[in-house]
Design goal:
By secondary structure, the chain is α+β, with helices and mostly antiparallel strands. The chain has 28 helices and 26 strands.
Length: 745
């Protein structure tokens, strides 16, 4: 890999054409990484793409493309719309389908002639040669051109295995058909293997066709997300309504949204009122009312009403585009286990070539010329059956489906490493505010003293005082009365008393709003009934605000940050999964204890600073636990970065989401348990796939080489080897697709 002396690099993802196996991916990666100016390159074989990190002042996309083309592949560096990419993909699959059908139709009579009527007709070999040639030279051409491009650089891949096995058998059969006397004069039978060549190529093409269809289904989630953006947009320009392509919308354009339309851009409602279905972002099934000044996001659906929006973010800047990019990058990233698999795949083909040659030499050495035919067939079987496709597909297909499944459920996974790490989590740390609670303090209780008269007038005074304060709790009171339609009155005098509350004068009377210390300092008495109510409210983890005149307390207001409806359910789901749950908060111990009690958490710490949270993460890690941290604010960023797995609430701050490996769009704790369950299911699938891929090769290669022949007389036909190879790849992809049906809750 080229080493860069500075970090002014760009990261780009390009579609790749021409890949047929994991060794292809390995070749592309190593060629790109060897290029000066390239910091890293990661190929997603299942997703048919490459992610390149490069220094644009040293190397450009055209040079990257030339590097890849040298070994027989191509990358699409031009900006391609999703429709154009899908058209190219559909055309390639259609071409593969045609070649598969033609190869199958021509291979059938060759198979019948070669297997059941061999030697019965003098013209039999010529007919088989005539039918097999189009299969080799047209339908299977891709294998030979790919193998040659690799060979020019001293590399080998699946194309090499197929090209060598079928090419040698085809040339040998043509030679024996044209010049049979060469072997007859030496007392040997001039065998032909046209049926093996034809059927092998037909089977491999069929396997590739089925594999492509399965891989397309594995990327269904990303296509579904891309389908959320409309193709055209109605806008108002110079007083006229125009319909333009989505790519032509500019920031500041006035977009017209009719009932049933999908929102094309991120923006702000300028005129009109409507309800939007935002379930694709929040998971909330109920439509959300939107009025002038409210924010809207691309991909959401307009339910009722016509509105006009001012476009603020378009194209790749919208939240939907960021989600799509995040999912694409995650699907293209590599899990740690994949790096080991890549190393194995990189040396696998050369090792197989060696085994195939050793197989032929062993047959001749131990059996003599009499077993030349068996040795030849065994060598071909080894070359065909050992294709590393299943090995290359085992991890990326599971990652693609797992990441896509998460995206559909509102779980955005940053990279494959985060998805793989989540299954190891044994302890989860939860921030309180915004994670367990809503993070929006609200007035929950209002208790007036029996001696308070004209409470309506007093409420107006209290509202006016809190409207002057900038304290978060004062904001909760302000919002409470604003929603009730109260009118703000201007006090004759106002003063903020740091750490205690506020004071104000109305019509010559002084009033106080604040904590117990404020009343105590000014000699204000608290009636017995309010004192009792205060104790009860504080036991429920509510913050109490007193409202008083110069003599006595008139009312108690309780403000609380409500616990999320699904918090207790999510915490129980984690505990049922064998995960220890901890709560850390900067709030006071009494409030923390009350919240912990209500949601079923026994382990909690209060009055912590951001550094304290990060230190607690390290403490658990020192005890051998794999720690997951869930938070939503800047104060959680340090702990999120320290944890083994970081999970951010989607409604939290951008910095928390940037640090986090997983972002929960619904901001519900049930999603944490769901993310861990998805990770466990994905890792289980990867292990199943890798076991099958390795087991298949470990068992099949010796059998193909003829290991059982001395004991049982069984020799694996190259045709069966071709079918087995195709089946192994399709079975691995099919197993990965089962992740789409995993129940996460």
């Amino acid at each position: 890999m080229a080493t860069l002396t500075h970090t002014n690099y760009e990261k780009a993802t390009y579609p790749v054409e021409g890949m047929t196996c994991a060794s292809c991916a390995s070749s592309i990666e190593s060629m790109l990484r060897a290029r000066e100016g390239v910091a890293d390159a990661n190929v997603n074989f299942a997703g048919k793409s490459v992610q390149v990190t490069y220094e644009p002042t040293i190397v450009n996309p055209n040079q990257l493309r030339e590097t890849v083309k040298e070994i027989g592949f191509d990358i699409l560096i031009e900006n391609q719309t999703q429709e154009q990419l899908e058209e190219r993909e559909a055309k390639a699959i259609q071409d593969l389908k045609l070649k598969t059908i033609v190869a199958g139709v021509l291979a059938l009579p060759v198979f019948i002639l070669g297997m059941f009527f061999h030697g019965h007709f003098a013209w039999g070999n010529w007919v088989m040669l005539l039918l097999t040639s189009p299969i080799v030279l047209w339908a299977g051409q891709r294998f030979f051109t790919g193998a040659w491009a690799q060979a020019k650089h001293g590399r080998a891949n699946m194309d090499t295995l197929v090209a060598l096995s079928t090419g040698i058998a085809y040339i040998f059969s043509v030679f024996n058909s044209v010049y049979p006397e060469f072997f007859l004069s030496r007392g040997l039978e001039p065998h032909v293997y046209f049926e093996a060549v034809a059927v092998i190529i037909a089977f491999i093409l069929l396997g590739k066709y089925l594999e492509e269809g399965a891989k397309n289904r594995s990327s269904a989630a990303i296509k579904k997300l891309m389908g959320l953006q409309p193709k055209t947009v109605r806008i108002l320009r110079n007083g006229a309504e125009l319909e333009i392509k989505i790519e032509e919308v500019q920031v500041g354009d006035r977009v017209v949204l009719l009932p049933g339309d999908r929102v094309p851009v991120d923006g702000e409602v300028a005129a009109g009122t409507t309800y939007l279905d935002e379930s694709m972002l929040s998971g909330e099934p109920l439509p959300v009312q939107k009025q002038p000044g409210d924010k809207v996001f691309a991909g959401t659906i307009n339910q009722k009403g016509s509105v006009q929006l001012i476009a603020e973010k378009t194209g790749g800047e919208t939240m939907l585009a960021h989600i799509i990019k995040m999912v694409q990058e995650a699907q293209g990233s590599k899990a740690p286990v994949q790096k080991l698999v890549d190393k194995i795949a990189g040396i696998f083909v050369p090792v197989v070539l060696g085994i195939a040659l050793l197989t032929l030499l062993s047959w001749i050495m131990f059996g003599g010329q009499a077993y030349l035919t068996e040795g030849f067939l065994s060598m071909i079987s080894v070359l065909v059956i050992a294709c590393p496709c299943a090995l290359g597909l085992a991890t990326p297909t599971a990652i693609m489906v797992g990441v896509g499944r998460g995206a559909e459920s509102g779980i955005l996974i940053k990279d494959a490493e985060s998805l793989e790490r989540a299954h190891e989590v044994s302890a989860v740390i939860l921030d309180k505010t915004g994670t367990i609670t809503l993070g929006k303090p609200t007035v929950t209780d209002v208790v007036w003293s029996d001696e308070a008269a004209e409470t309506k007038q007093l409420e107006e005074y209290f509202y006016a005082m809190e409207a002057q304060s900038e304290h978060p709790i004062a904001q909760a009171v302000y919002n409470y009365y604003k929603e009730a339609g109260a009118q703000v009155k201007q006090p004759d005098h106002f003063n903020s008393l740091t750490g205690m509350g506020i004071e104000a004068d109305f019509k010559g009377t002084r009033y106080y709003a604040g904590n117990h210390k404020l009343l105590q300092q000014h000699g204000v008495t608290i009636p017995e009934e309010l004192e009792q109510q205060t104790i009860t409210l504080q036991e429920d983890a509510k913050t109490v605000i007193y409202f008083a005149d110069a003599k006595q307390a008139l009312a108690v207001f309780a403000v609380s940050d409500p616990i999320k409806e699904t918090a207790a359910q999510g915490i129980k789901a984690m505990q049922d999964a064998g995960i220890e749950v901890y709560m850390l908060t900067g709030d006071n111990k009494q409030t923390a204890a009350a919240v912990a009690r209500q949601v079923g958490i026994t382990n909690f710490n209060a009055e912590l600073m951001p550094q304290d949270k990060a230190d607690f993460v390290k403490q658990l890690q020192a005890e051998g636990k794999h720690v997951g941290m869930v938070g939503d604010g800047i104060n959680d960023a340090q702990a999120l970065a320290t944890a083994d797995l970081s999970i951010a609430m989607g409604q939290g701050t951008d910095i928390a989401m940037d640090v986090a490996g997983i972002t929960l769009m619904r901001s519900e704790l049930t999603q944490v348990a769901a993310a861990i369950k998805l990770s466990r299911a994905t890792v289980k699938t990867i292990r199943q796939n890798l076991f099958w891929a390795f087991f298949y090769n470990v068992i099949c290669i010796p059998i193909a080489a003829g290991l059982l022949f001395p004991f049982t007389g069984f020799l694996l036909s190259p045709m069966i080897a071709g079918a087995a190879m195709a089946f192994s790849s399709v079975s691995v992809v099919a197993n990965s697709l089962r992740l789409r049906t995993v129940k996460l809750k």
